[in-house]
Specification:
By secondary structure, this protein is an alpha/beta fold. The chain folds into two domains: about 1-225 and about 295-345, Luciferase-like domain (TIM Barrel, Alpha-Beta Barrel); about 235-295, no CATH class. The chain has helices at about 15-30, 45-55, 70-85, 100-105, 110-125, 170-180, 195-205, 230-235, 235-245, 255-260, 265-275, 280-285, 290-295, 300-315, 335-345, and strands at about 1-5, 30-35, 60, 65, 90-95, 135, 140, 165, 185, 215, 220-225, 295-300, 320-325. Strands 1, 2, 3, 4, 5, 8, 9, 10, 11, 12 and 13 form an eleven-stranded parallel sheet that branches. Strands 6-7 form a two-stranded antiparallel sheet.
């Protein structure tokens, strides 16, 4: 198992520390550093900046939002970032949700499975430097009976294929991930429920004659180090409440649905009710500590090492740690270095 680092969003008051974390992860041998986007900072600009500040670590989009860009633009961006980084780019994609897709981009949140499939087919076609000609239900290139030309990507990507990851949650999207992607970007990853998730991805792999060999199971997991487990869990409450309570509407919140599938339906409903009413502290308080422990790497080095063994046994290949700017308890060393120490103790590292 390998370690990655998910920086989340840029411009949230953590810019200096995020840059320092990326540089340190590069020095410590982390495999990848990811950047996210929603309706604030874009990920592509941040990743270009990170590529210039690092030398070995891969840079990844977690995720580029599909409604934000035409597929050919995503191919251009992927080829450019791969070139700028010397072949270190990983392309993560996701459909976002209806509120962002329709409210921010003006793109209907319809047929997300079909749109994603066509989108990635076009991206791969462009990156292979084929003449882009496509006739699908959602995308048509060039526009028929017009002046549009059949074009080929001008630049030559560093690699023949840029690794593609999907951020997916529901069964249909998970099967699609297995079919057409090289890796899975997960959130709220609990080793106890990863079995059915990965089995669904494997169904998609089998459909196209592939196994899980070489497929990167790569969830993002909160990391907080300290001797007081409850205090560590409390550090993650704000972000978790945002996802379960406010990342979507009352009727369409994928993370709330996931918490319900984990067995916390009443608690997830309470978190959402509080959050949508802007009672944020009450929403955070409604989160059970057990849930926070199940989806995080929390506590002492020994406890984190034990959890890493659980993730490895469940089929995780890369743990992308999400940091909360906490120093290791009783130590001057950084949280990133503590994660390396825990991975060494676990005995499951590469």
């Amino acid at each position: 198992m390998r370690l990655g680092l998910n920086l989340g969003y840029w411009g949230m008051g953590n810019n200096a520390s995020n840059l320092a974390y990326a540089r340190e992860a590069d020095e410590l041998g982390y495999s990848v550093v990811w950047a996210a986007e929603a309706y604030g900072s874009d990920a592509a600009t941040v990743l270009a900046f990170m590529a210039a500040q690092t030398t070995r670590i891969d840079i990844g989009a977690a995720v580029f939002q599909i409604p934000a860009r035409q597929p050919t633009m995503t191919a251009m961006t992927a080829a450019t970032l791969d070139s700028l980084s010397g072949g270190r780019f990983r392309l993560g994609l996701g459909v976002s949700g209806p509120q962002v897709s329709e409210g921010w981009y003006g793109v209907p949140f319809a047929a997300p499975i079909g749109r994603t499939r066509e989108y990635i087919e076009i991206v791969n076609m462009a990156l292979r430097r084929e003449e882009v000609v496509y006739s699908g239900k959602h995308y048509t290139l060039p526009i028929p009976d017009g002046p549009g030309k059949k074009l080929t990507l001008i630049i030559h990507p560093v690699r023949d294929a840029v690794p593609i990851y999907l951020g997916s949650l529901g069964p249909q999207n998970l099967r699609l991930t297995g079919e057409i992607a090289d890796g899975w970007l997960g959130l709220f990853a609990d080793p106890q429920i990863l079995g059915p998730v990965l089995a669904t991805i494997a169904e998609g792999r089998a459909k196209v004659g592939k196994t899980m060999d070489g497929f990167d199971v790569s969830p993002t997991i909160p990391l907080v180090v300290g001797d007081d487990l409850a205090a560590c869990a409390d550090v993650t409450r704000r972000q978790t409440a945002l996802y379960i309570g406010g990342m979507g509407s009352r009727d369409k919140n994928f993370y709330n649905d996931l918490a319900c599938r984990m067995g916390y339906e009443a608690e997830a409903t309470a978190v959402q009710e509080h959050y949508l009413a802007k009672r944020y502290k009450e929403a955070e308080a409604a989160l059970p500590q057990e849930l926070l422990e199940r989806i995080g790497l929390l506590g002492t080095v020994d406890r984190i090492a034990d959890r890493m063994r659980e993730y490895a046994a469940a089929g995780v290949n890369t743990i992308n740690v999400a940091l909360y700017h906490q120093a290791a308890a009783g130590s001057d060393q950084s949280v990133l270095r503590t994660a390396v120490e825990a991975l060494e103790k676990s005995g499951v590292g590469e």
